[in-house]
Structure prediction request, 227 residues.
Amino acid sequence: DAGVIQSPRHEVTEMGQEVTLRCKPISGHDYLFWYRQTMMRGLELLIYFNNNVPIDDSGMPEDRFSAKMPNASFSTLKIQPSEPRDSAVYFCASSGLGGRKLFFGEGSRLTVL
Amino acid sequence: DQQVKQNSPSLSVQEGRISILNCDYTNSMFDYFLWYKKYPAEGPTFLISISSIKDKNEDGRFTVFLNKSAKHLSLHIVPSQPGDSAVYFCAASVGGTSYGKLTFGQGTILTVHP
Prediction:
């Protein structure tokens, strides 16, 4: 079975550019989460969706960040404009079928120069 | 306000011995706890979990203990193997409307020496 699929795995961009990270959750899962991992803050939740609807976006750091889930099999996290302090590994995770454990993708490592 | 804390950034253990990783939490509303393992350049993978109605859960070499009065949980790995070397994250969640939302600790780097 395919796990959570994220793209791109690595992204290097310049300050001010738009960045779009993509995620395909595990089929049948009804929860989708975006986490960010940094040395300073560890793994922090940015936003999560239930049945494609955003439930809690209190972790989104600024208006420069936005996330969408147009259907059950696809989500995007967009940063516009990007800044060097956005450099981090961004993880997408999904859960469902009544379970409370999250299944993570391999992450997207973002470097903003 | 860090609700889940792993106070030991790293732990070094000899192969075959026991590894004990610790985690403390402050939110008494947490009712489900999980441990994740993470290798470099990979996403965290689920290891073991425990509900607040239990005080112990075992899965092969891995056992998680929960002490609710102390707001403390620990992961025991016996016997430790070199392949267990990874970063271990403790996580906790609240039921109800926050179902599925995990709060993570900072992680503990476990190194198992052959």
Remarks:
- Residues 9 and 108 of chain A are 4 Å apart (CA to CA).
